[in-house]
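Narrative summary of target 7.
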Amino acid sequence: METELAIVGSGPAGLAAAIEAAKTGVKVTIIDENPRPGGQLFKQIHKFFGSEKHKAGIRGINIGHELLEQCEKLNVQIFLSTEVWGIFDNGKALGLKHGNNTTEKLNTRNLILATGAIENPLAFPGWTLPGVLGAGATQTLMNLHRVLPGQRVLMVGTGNVGLIVSYQLLQAGADVVAAIDILPK
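Modeled conformation, tokenized:
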């Protein structure tokens, strides 16, 4: 199998890169290990803040759907539930393992690695105990899997992520007993 541009990761960065390349006529293939595309956007049920240029006032899930629609219109090929198990020939070939356990080689002229963000956990005594979750894990449970991670919550962090996740927990029926922060204000 061949493509002009292989993109590993179907989150916001991977989809945006695919759109820009496909607009110029490049044949694009996206590969993602997850069963559905969109990455972090599909956890973001709240409206984004910031400037209009950065999609303020639009829910992340809706931004994800917009990006997917654009990819579809531009004939971007997306392989989901597919792992990239190796990069060969100086980035010109990828080893793929599909969800049905078949493998194949994807030859490409160009490669973009857009493998996404990971949560940066705050390490403190007890942070690895059951019931202690990061904001991203909390959003994954609630917004993707519809599971309330707990009835009573202490939120550590009062920045935009801590506050929006606290609000989502309240909406889902949890009792957020406090939101604490190391900063004085």
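Residues 135-180 form one domain.
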